[in-house]
Amino acid sequence: MRRANRKDEQELANDGLTYPDTEYFCKTRPVPVGPQFKAMEAVRNWARANSLAVQAFGTGCGAVELRPLMTARYDAYRYGITGSPTPRQSCVFVIGGYASVKTLKRIVVSYEQMQNPKFVVALGSCTVNGGMYWDSYNTINRIDHYIPVDLYVSGCMPRPEALLAGFVKLKELIKAGKCEGANRYIENLDWYKANQKRVIKNWNMPDYNW
Amino acid sequence: MSEWLTRGGYAAISVFVAATYGLLLSGIIARTLARVQGRIGIPVWQAFLDVFKNAAKRTAVSHGAMFYLGPVFRIAGGVGTLLFIPLLYDSEVFGNFHFAGDIILIIYFILFGALGMALGAGEAGHPYSAIGVGRGLAQFAAFEVPFGLAVLSLAIQYDTLSVYQMVGAQQGGVANWTLFTNPLATAAAMLSLLGSTGYAPFDVVGSPQEIPTGPRTEFQSDFISLMQLNRAIFAAAKLVLYMNLFFGGATNLIELMIKTWAIYMVPIAVAAAYPRYRIDQSIRFFLRVPTWIGIAAVILADFLYNVS
User: Fold this and answer.
1) Is A51 part of the contact surface with chain B (CB cutoff 8 Å)?
2) Which residues of B touch A177 (CB under 8 A)?
3) In chain B, what is the greatest distance between 2 CA atoms, to the nearest angstrom?
């Protein structure tokens, strides 16, 4: 009986789904996976820091600052930063400025589809406190309430140099083993989900997008 | 028994060398392309880090048994192709398992990985995977035609189906290379190489901007790590095969590196200059000029060398 109860706890409710869709999505609750073998973890973190695959999802006006980074003038490839067209293969998510509620839904889906060591860089003032959109009817003010953020690059808009400096700082944080946002998200999943569902009214997706 | 252990050990060394060289080559090529675009480019060892980073991911999502087997088939195809191609001519360590008629097996092995990948990508269930697989196999069928005709021409010319004997026939001077004794077959095969390396203008299979990396869309963590490793091994195997068939093979590793690098620069030079073809344009390209050159190569070889 106790085992059954525990199993119920481990399953997600998936309340937003209607009948045929409930069959297609996984109900299993994600579990945090911490670092194993501390000595190896230092080497792994070094590799992670030097191979940053940025997800190609421009979520706001700040995304225009990402394009120049890859061109000859700034050339972010030098630092081991590449673009990744699919969330499955990427490890850095750059939230480019303001996130409307409609975009937030896609941000959550994309973020959850990335695999465990995953890092979020929030770009621009809008991600910190809403910036110039702080009283807008359809944008959220603090991205930190919906997905965990590892690093903020403030400004409106920050220059590409600032973003590049942010990436260098992110690499330092990864090497120091301080970027455990993925585990923080799963440990506090209920809190994050409650926040997300408060603003996303048409919640027609599973509670965790495996 | 001990002989088989020795040969297995030598084969493992071959695979290791090919994997290392293939990963390094991808870095060199990326840096070359970056220079064309006026950038500095990624470090040359970036591919090693990418493979290691993806293998070091803590979680992985699977979609079923075939999803697991897709990358496994892929790497079996890559390693299988490599194991039947002699890396170096007249070398005990890098000779690999060549036998009479191995070119037929190699052509099958080249297709094996692509088919395995198609099944794996199919189970992933992503619509873009299906589009990528459809495009990939269609283009594959197209660029294999000129390559098959070139190999047929070589088989008539050298009267053998063994890669090792073909390399042997080209020893003793630059003038003996197939490049000079059978330029039509070489031209057909080099045009086919443009398609099989998958660079522009024939990169519509995994075009990142339209269908996010195509067949590989859903693969992550260990799966993509295995596929990146295979990409390196397979590229090395294909280049060594071309070097053996058309450019006189190699007798030491330095010669192998210089020759394969020079062969790889052909598709890279084309990629740096041309935009992307649509899939129908790509198939039409391969089934026209390269195929005609291939047919001419077979007819000419039959006319010149088939004395019976």
Assistant:
1) yes
2) none
3) 64
